Amino acid sequence: MSGVNLRVAFLLLASLLAGCAAAQTGSAGASPAFARAARLKRGINASEWFAQVYDKRGYKQEHFQAWTTAEDIALIKSMGFDHVRLSVNPQPMFTEREPNKIPAEYLGYLDAAVKMILDHGLAVVIDLHPESDLKARLTKDDDFVEQFADFWRTLAAHYSTWDADRVFLEILNEPEFTDRYRWLGVQAKLAAAIREGAPALTIIAAGARWSDDDDLVFQEPLHDSNVIYNFHFYEPRIFTHQGATWGAYYWHWLRGVRYPSSPESVERVAPLVPDEVNRLQVIRYGRDRWDASRIEAEMKQAEEWARRRGVPLVCNEFGVYRDYSDPQDRAAWLHDVRAALERNGIGWTMWDYSGSFGVVSKKDGKAVADEGVLRALGMK
What we know:
By secondary structure, the chain is of the alpha/beta class. It folds into 2 domains: 290 residues, Alpha-Beta Barrel (TIM Barrel), CATH 3.20.20; 52 residues, no CATH class. Helices cover 45% and strands 14% of the residues. It has 14 helices and 10 strands. β4, α8 and β5 form a beta-alpha-beta unit. The chain is globular, with a radius of gyration of 22 Å. The chain starts with a helix and ends with a helix. The N terminus is likely disordered.
């Protein structure tokens, strides 16, 4: 090939590559995901309303109408939150082998809750938040994945005409997939079904194992530009989940775990844990010296992942179980996590409104705000 022809071929190739890059940039630029992510800057999770319902009323009308009221939503708005992540367990409205037949009455209760949130000027994330047994089926049962995709397609179609700037659809809360590669495929299948049902709504996606940040950075973006990615942050769980009776068994032994951590601060706590292996985890927590800079390092990794891929990112769960944590330590951890998220341009949603991690306590049906938590969150 002559020098002239070589230069012509080079120029054509460069032009082609530039055109491809421009097309990709134009596609990403046309997506509303970044603009809509700006509506998810400071939020709160509404738990135990349409998911995690363990009281005797169960998933019934009287519970839906009494657990979270218009007064609660007005209080959330007045505190300065801009969105609510609404946990929705799909199981009470899932019909085996006929998942596209969602009971109209039940859907009406959910519609009323979503409308109430929107009517108060808040955005709402409809977060599919099933129990572990449903998530376990997704890890191994391809037929069930197809059923769940059909369910999502139908639910998404139902909300497809709602306010696209303020209604978000979250694929699955905290997937319990040890096989990250399978989750890549399952999430892509579910996202495609949602997109078929709701072409304009923004989807929220996550990593494989409980939506942790280390699984976020394994994730690769979906072939859909209208997606916001999310992770959950509860590190270190020795502090945030001390005294909890779910998750790791040894957590229930923990009392008086302090934050920030130091070798000295765990000297009285470690002996409370009978098993030596678990006791070592407590000792390591002290020696790891968890503090604001350690949390910042975690957030930075998530921010860099999103920036390199050109996608919007939120953290839509973080919090501290309040029954056994020192209130000042809890507030300090919440402050450090919130501040690190904001420094890295990551919107956040605290867990939760009135549950065991709550920003309020319910006393005689009245919500009483935790002023220390509000200050930690930079809220009113």
